[in-house]
Amino acid sequence: MNLEGLEMIAVLVVVVLFVKVLEQFGLLEASYDDSVEDELELSAVRHRPEGLEQLEAQTRFTRKELQVLYRGFKNECPSGVVNEDTFKDIYSQFFPQGDASTYAHFLFNAFDTDHNGSVSFEDFVMGLSILLRGSVQEKLNWAFNLYDINKDGYITKEEMLDIMKAIYDMMGKCTYPILKEEAPRQHVEIFFQKMDKNKDGVVTIDEFIDCCQNDENIMRSMQLFENVI
Amino acid sequence: MAAGVAAWLPFARAAAIGWMPVANCPMPVAPRDHGKRQDELIILNVSGRRFQTWRTTLDRYPDTLLGSSEKEFFYNEETKEYFFDRDPDAFRSILNFYRTGKLHYPRHECISAYDEELAFFGIIPEIIGDCCYEEYKDRKRENAERLMDDQEENKDNKLPNMNFRETMWRAFENPHTSTMALVFYYVTGFFIAISVITNVVETVPCGSTPNQKDVPCGERYTVAFFCMDTACVMIFTVEYLMRLFAAPSRYRFMRSVMSIIDVVAILPYYIGLVMTNNEDVSGAFVTLRVFRVFRIFKFSRHSQGLRILGYTLKSCASELGFLLFSLTMAIIIFATVMFYAEKGSSSSKFTSIPASFWYTIVTMTTLGYGDMVPKTIAGKIFGSICSLSGVLVIALPVPVIVSNFSRIYHQNQRADKRRAQKVQKARLARIRVVKTGMSSAFLHNKRNGLFNELLELPCSEEVEQHLSKTASLLESQHHHLLHCLEKTTAHEFVDEQLYEQNCREGAVQSYPSCSPSLSSQEGPTGTCCTHQARKNPLPDASVPPTCQGALQELSAVHIQCSDQPALSTSRSSLNMKLDDTSRLNCKSGLITTAIISIPTPPAVSPEGDSQPLTSPSMQTIASSNAVKVSTL
To answer: Which residue ranges does the record assign to the EF-hand domain (chain A) (predicted)?
Structure first.
């Protein structure tokens, strides 16, 4: 058979169609992406907290207060655990003018006591119990834990600078006086001058607690949030 | 502030303990709530509708919210019922799941709302019964497509600083972005049309000399047609090369369908140039000329309908495959039957089974050319069965393709409507207004609230009444939190306009020609007070979006322009400049409308006269950075 140009093309087309039909019936496995199936990934971790009585025993909240706290918690995080992004999101809603995500990151690490990447309701309530109903010693302990980013028992200048920058970030840019680059650094200097008694460049927990207990302003401000619920 | 997040306010305020040890200033007084407990409990069930069921019914599924002890958190002691502040309509189907064991998806429900309810009650959507599962999955897919469309739209609003290559690419992809692109678009469209028409007219027999048969126009006016072809191919080549240059990923561009069509459209011409007029290859040459007709596919860049058609055909691949397969089956069956039926008759055209294929196809598609007709009775009977079944086989998969096309087409229509710029802009403007309303509420309350602090009276009764009238407890607690942050960092929140003001005064000295809007808004500093006086003292949501847009543009400019030297001059300008009376006037203009800080040096005393309330607060604050002053 003398196949000329067009006939050859016609034959090619027929062959291609045939191959496609075979693919249709799975006899020739072509690679088609099933993006639909990706949606079927099972839902993420869901966590349920311990019973109300247990939490009542472990924290200093009353039953009613725990109920109130849980409702709010569950509303924002139906899955029962907060991961860092949700935490940042929630915290950012309180500081619309600035960027609260860095500070929220440090807070998250402070709340997530077992460092598993998510804050469950128990962690949350334990943290709140210390912050709102704990003794001054416990509160200062908690604050020290927050500042000590790598949890080695010492606050270095770098850690403090990170925290300070995070706090200043929350202010945003529309401030008066206008925020300068070295404002956090200056603030850290003042802080270290106050706290670092033996001038060794780090603040230990004892120096921290001692200094705070001698400072009237700080003592007074610790009592501010007592009746917050 | 969203009500849901309000429940997290205790947490946010508790976390503020982290700021306390680093603060240098004393903290403001916390608002007392007078023992006024906000009663959150409404004595209703699911938002008012009472549902009743047995406990054992709920216990059937212990890994969900209702089936476990988690629901104790929602128990209301007084009314002895469980209260959930959720949608009662959606709750119906959730409760039915416990009763019947099957979860149904109500068709009128929005897919994302339903998903949220399921997530809240701890039920995984995969449990949805087979009766409703397909619908659920379809809606979910539509929603995902819509979200992807939205994301792609937002990607289109790029920043203004694109380099030349990116601008060119964008001009190619969206012709409506600039006039150049639109011109280019129409010119190429015109030339595609010209090229196609030329190809067609080339073969029309035009004019005849008496001794020869009709010659097609192409052979009569060879030169003219060649020139036309050359011009078109030149334009197409230039266009292709420009697109290749501008493409962000050349490799991906070269693999895309449109570029392959472009190449196929222009290649025959070049191959024709290269090849000599040889007899052997003339057959192949004729084939190449056929490919010139592919130029008509270039129109698909110009017509969205064509693109949708192509996309539909691609997405209906399975239906098309089914159609082809069933047709092939039927053709083979009927061709065999017709061949054997007509084998007996003399001078039959049905010489072989493949020859009968032609008859079967023509009959099944109801064409009926009549060049092959059965002559025997058996042949006629089978022929009629063939044509009847042909109608059925072809009509069945076609509606599926049509509905697919319709769905995709409507989605595109919707996307186009949404892309209409006005809608986006108005919506974004409204959202922005709400957001600034939130932050300006704080500044507004700051001015009102400070009145209380300055008098240094520990919360007299009528001031508290006044306060509670203006701000709910929640708001006052939120404002107290923001206040603590201000004290910790010894800086204050100001609204955007004041910030622009400060930035401008600092930056105008070093960058006088930052942007045209700068000069149009505030010329020399001397006019800034009049502008300030004209301004609404409360910078709330009444500022029109366009004005805000200009201000934001300004702030964007300043972020680029102003850096350390500018900022330090603004600080020093506060300290000194007794001689610059115009600047001082500006300052007083500022003071009458907002809170600013005046440094302690008494050099700026002229302002001190205008607010007798400054002095008491000046001493209470120990920080060297800022002294707070307010006037009302």
So the answer is: 99-134, 135-170, 183-218
